[in-house]
Amino acid sequence: MKIGVVGAGNIGKTLGGSWEAAGHEVRYGTRAEAGSIFEAASSSEVILLAVPADAALEALEEAAEVAGKLVIDCTNRMGQAAFEKGKSKAEELAAAAPDAHVFKAFNAAFSKVMKNGGKTHGQKADLAFAGDGEVGRERLEKLIADAGFAPLDCGPLENAYLVEALGAAMIYLGFGANLGADIAWKLIR
Ligand SMILES: NC(=O)c1ccc[n+]([C@@H]2O[C@H](COP(=O)([O-])OP(=O)(O)OC[C@H]3O[C@@H](n4cnc5c(N)ncnc54)[C@H](OP(=O)(O)O)[C@@H]3O)[C@@H](O)[C@H]2O)c1
Hints:
Elements: E1 2-6, H1 10-21, E2 25-29, H2 36-42, E3 46-49, H3 56-63, E4 70-73, H4 89-96, E5 101-105, H5 111-115, E6 119-120, E7 123-124, E8 126-131, H6 134-146, E9 150-153, H7 160-176
Parallel strand pairs: 1-2, 1-3, 3-4, 4-5, 8-9
Antiparallel strand pairs: 5-8, 6-7
Bound molecules: NADP nicotinamide-adenine-dinucleotide phosphate.
């Protein structure tokens, strides 16, 4: 797939590198290089917004050509007090880009585990995601698998708040409860 990665920080470079290694064509867009966010997005069928949550809407607007494309929101809002249906960051982005396939994914995993190809403590981690439609779902499941994780389908976009809560809980467990950044979610079933 052709993937535009917006934000070449920790997550952008890590996931972009995994996808390149899996044979995808990855282009990066950064605010430092004028026009590069639009170029990366307009030449791709998948867009990863790997920027702080507060910057995601602005980055999406700069990407501009997102209709019919999978847009992955991996952001975590720090210090968020409540997680409510209808109030997730992913739904906010979807409302701004109704013709895009916006999915919440990759927020509930630490970069350390991503860098280790989705494995930690000798196991393959689950990667929770939520979003609407089969087009985005199929592409995303492939990209999750290509990053080394097992896709964990948490249902429609209105469930994105649940995936966001998983991310917040993980941040607490990793840093608040000092379990470290090599923990990961796995559903026993
Ligand atoms: N780190 C993790 O383990 C982890 C795990 C899951 C999800 N996440 C989420 O992933 C996202 C990225 O995290 P990260 O760890 O990769 O952070 P990071 O290393 O600080 O990278 C953030 C990137 O966003 C760019 N950026 C900031 N504001 C921007 C704007 N207004 N427009 C365009 N680009 C902008 C920065 O560009 P500059 O270089 O120009 O500052 C930087 O390249 C965050 O939402 C975070 O919550 C992180």
